[in-house]
Amino acid sequence: MCAPIPIVDVSPLDGAATDQAPLVTAIASAAHGLGFFQVLGHGISTDLIDRVWVQTNALFGLPMDLKQTLLRTKENPLGYYDRELTKNRRDLKEVFDFAAMDGTNRWPQTLPDFRSTLIEYFIACELLSFRLLGALCVGLGLPDTTLACHFRPVHTGFVRLNHYPIDDPVLQAARETVAPLGDMALNHHSDAGALTLLLQDDVGGLQVLADGGWIDVTPLNGALVVNVGDMMQIWSNDRYHATRHRVQPVTDRPRHSIPFFFNPAYETDVSPLVATESPRYRTVNWGEFRRARADGDYADYGHEIQITDYRV
Description:
Elements: E1 7-9, H1 21-32, E2 36-40, H2 46-60, H3 64-68, E3 79-81, E4 85-86, E5 89-90, E6 94-98, H4 114-139, E7 158-164, E8 186-189, E9 195-200, E10 206-210, E11 213-216, E12 224-228, H5 230-235, E13 245-247, E14 255-262, E15 269-270, E16 284-285, H6 286-298
Parallel strand pairs: 1-2
Antiparallel strand pairs: 2-12, 3-6, 4-5, 6-7, 7-14, 8-13, 9-12, 9-14, 10-11, 10-13, 15-16
Helix pairs in contact: 1-4, 2-4
């Protein structure tokens, strides 16, 4: 199915427009409805995006022994991994995670332009995320700066490079020691944080759950896909929806995507903001929630934490 994903030109968020009310309405409406929308006019240059794709392909094209030198651990979730779990099922993908200023990043030493290019992209996504965050606050009837204090001067956002190959990336000799593959390249889930900005290639495969069925998020040239995360759903007291989504297995060529996860500072306590409504959630400490979700990505620890665990 082709997705009725709203398409929003967000260029007025750069402050040039005198009346941003129509744009705020469009963003809030999309977050309230499907929880997904595609944005144009986002201000991230085509040149930068092209350079990011070059570095992404170079990373995943490295020999496995070099990628293994970048391997993440349970203690340090940044770096390379090829056996991540979603809903306790192994995904058919390779990932590489990094944060902007975190000293625990694992950078590939054989790719001299990798770090500078990806940090430049991180900063561009960060700027756009703050603008979207402000618009979503206004959409709740709040000042646009209401949530910024939970992301400045420090936040826990990170970028992930995804490679969805046709075949299992785990070497044959190691497959008996890891969880079996699920039936999806990426199993259904909602994102844990506040917002996600996704750059995807033209292969397709991303699907969103809507009205009991899965609909395609068709790639749109030059666009970023934006979706609401669990913490934003709590802050909005269910006005904005962190919708479940998944990635179907590719059958003819590899797929790549690059999500930027915009997450608050670890010490942030998240609770509904709308004072005129009865809160639907108990307070959630983001650091505890994030650690529990990250542990579940790394290994099967049984129940995967969800915001429904905090419903009043």
